Every structure is written in C-alpha cells, then in structure tokens.
C-alpha cells in the first residue's frame, strides 16, 4: 500500500472553491506513484472538510486514480506554530502510517513551517518515507533532504562518549534503586538496561514480592520515554465491566454517572509507558480489547465512534506461568507473543544471598524513618546473628514478607538491637503442602518426618538445618523429633554434612 500524508493548507481550500488544483490535489493526481490511501490533517475549518474530500475524490476519479480511502482527520494541536503539540500529532501519524504502508509520502507544501519542519525531522527516521512538494505552477518535485540525521546523531554521541572516557563506569541511574550485588541480579539488571533502551514491549516474570513494579519503573526511567508519564494498573483489580472506561476512557453520557469525558490509561500514558501488573489475571474478553489496542495503536473511548491514535509502550508483569495459561486456554496466545518480547525474570529473594544484607539495611532505614516521628520510638538495628537468620530463611513472599517480618520484629523488640530470637519470633508460621518441589521451611514449620521417604527426609532435614542456622535444638523441634541426638543420628544415616 502507498500512502500520502499531508496537512490541509489554506490555499488548498481556497483553490477548491474555484475548482482549481493546489498542492494536495496536484500531488495526489500527478505523482509518479499512485496513492491507495490519503490522510489529511487539519485543526480548523471543519465545516469544509467534507467538501474538500469530495473535491479530491472527484479529481482522483478523473485522473483514474484510487479514491476510496481519502479522509480529513482532526489534529489536536494548540496552534499552527506550537511545535510540541504538532510534534505529538506528527509522530503518531507518521509512525502509524509508515508501519502500515510499503511507502509513505509526505507533502511539504501545505501547512505551516512548523508542520513542515517536524514532518521532515520525524519522517527522516523512517526508512520507507519520502517527501514531495508542489511548485507555484503545481508541478511535482521529489525532495531529497541531504542530511543523514542518524549519522549526525551517532557522530555527536561518539564525541560525547569520547569526552567521558576517563570517568568511572557506573550503572544507569534509573536502576540505582535496584539492589544488585549478587551475580544473578547483576545479570537481570544488565538485560533490563538493554531492554530499556529499545521500544520493545517487556514482560517481567517472578514470584509475588520480587520487585516487578520497581523494575518496570526503572525500565521506563532508563528509556527515551523517561520524561513522559508512566501509568500503573493492577489487572487483578480490573473488573470486566469497567475495563473500557479504565483503559480506553469514555465520553460524557456513555453510561450512568459519566458526567464528563474521561481519558483512559492509554491516553494518560500517551508518549510514555503503561505498566500492566498481574496481566495474567485479565479475562479473555479484556485480553481481546487489549490486543486490538496493541496491534493497531489506536483506541476508541466508550460511547464514542472516533478512533484515537496512541503511542504507548507496554510493560506487563505476572507471577503466573503464562505459557501454562496459554496451554490451558486461559490466556490468548497472540497476546502472549505480543507481550513476551523483552523478557525479564526477577529472581526470588532466597536466590539473592549476596544482596540480602544490603536489602535488610535499606528496609531497616525505611522502618526507622517511618517511625521516627513517633515520640516514643527508639531507632533500632539488627544484630549480625539476626541478619544471618534472615539470610537462612526461604522468604516465599520475598521482599514483601521480609518487610512485614522486620516491622513486627521492630515493634516487639525491647532492645535497640533486634536479636536473632526477635527475628525468629516475628516469622509467621506457614504450611508447606507442596511436596513435589524442593523443600524450604520457615522457623515454626513442622512435619511428621517419620512417614516420609529417605529422599524427602533428607530434604527436610537439610531445610530445617538451614532455616535454624544449623542449631540442632531448633531443627529438632521443627522436624518433630524426640531430641537432638535423634537428629544427629538421622544426619549420619542420611549422609548430611552439618556445621554443628
């Protein structure tokens, strides 16, 4: 498909009244390449648009050229010389049309200098865009812009890099809030930095509480969209009956209580990022509507008939196994592949032992700061043994569970130093019912180990030793054994190495 994009000029309208050619009609009927689609942008004289469409279709028909897809679209700009709003409109349309068409031609004659300038700047970034203009006698001129903006940018960037080669290397500031001392987390941050510099959709996977939203915000802040908004929505809380209004907005009167027009999250995030947390919770009906917005780059407000073009980068996250949901028919396969381009897997806290002391210190600082305004609060720290106990626990709830546990420990601890026992007492008892996976236990967990096979016994004994910090007295109670000598005998029989 070959497309022409143009602004509607004053001379185009004036000549139309005299049934004479101007730039748009001349280019449309005389260009070497016939256009299958013509998109015309305008912010004024709306009452004349229909007349101009009919005039141009008539001219195209006389010239034996396609005339079925010609339309004037409203451009929401502040003024004909407002670069910011013009750039926003031009970026939307040029990106959309260049993606759809084999070639996109842009008319540089009609419209204001601001419109022409921005059309060139944005259009030069697309490989299939060319430029046309009409002479005063309505002759068609193919315009060759003799500047390679990409090369000019590369040269400028190279100079900037060269001037900083003696500086110390440092992590992108957008990722500074992510604690990354462990090898596994360093690898994750490295991948996230590469993804942030692209425009690709991102899918963040990981257990609950692993920091998926923090990672999404870091990716946004490290991207070229950092100065644009990021909007966050928990899809698990997105009721199906309000999804249209929440994501896509609504027009006044669309439903009872809709007292004014409301832009949805896609419009609010235009130019920026939309973070869909727990995307695996979306119903199939909602997934269909989301897929349409992603594929076409346009939305329709509830109660409206006009399409709105949006430029939004999607970052999705879930703790669920999306491929399994796809296999079960609970998540659309086409939507999955649309989202799963740049994939980031957030590691569980138990796999980040090197990060644990730093994370604990950060949380301790936050707890002390949050409670500092209370007149009776005394700032507290955690003992070294307390930190060792924290590192030995599995934390299935990850950072959220650790945060809650530390708050409980700080609340009940009598001393200014939170002890090992204070931490152990703050851990909530949980039941581990899944015996088909690797075993992890918290301090208060109990099992009847006698009824398990030797293999399962070994896993539970090792898990109890780890969770108790290799204190046999505690591990014995956790396993439901008679005394610690019995545990010692089991350790020998099962061939388990023990520090104590």
From TrEMBL:
Keyword Transmembrane included in the entry's annotation? no
Q: GO terms for biological process?
A: regulation of DNA-templated transcription
* Annotated GO MF terms: ATP binding
InterPro entries found in the cross-reference section: AAA+_ATPase, AAA_lid_NorR, P-loop_NTPase, Sigma_54_int, Sigma_54_int_dom_ATP-bd_2
Q: Where is the Sigma-54 factor interaction domain?
A: 178-411
Cross-referenced Pfam families: AAA_lid_14, Sigma54_activat
**UniProt key word Nucleotide-binding:** yes
Identify the keywords attached in UniProt to this record, alphabetized.
ATP-binding, Nucleotide-binding
Classify the source by domain of life. Answer: Bacteria
State the PANTHER family in the record: DNA-BINDING TRANSCRIPTIONAL ACTIVATOR HYFR-RELATED (PTHR32071:SF123), TRANSCRIPTIONAL REGULATORY PROTEIN (PTHR32071)
Protein name (record): Sigma-54 dependent transcriptional regulator
Q: Which organism is it from?
A: Shewanella gaetbuli
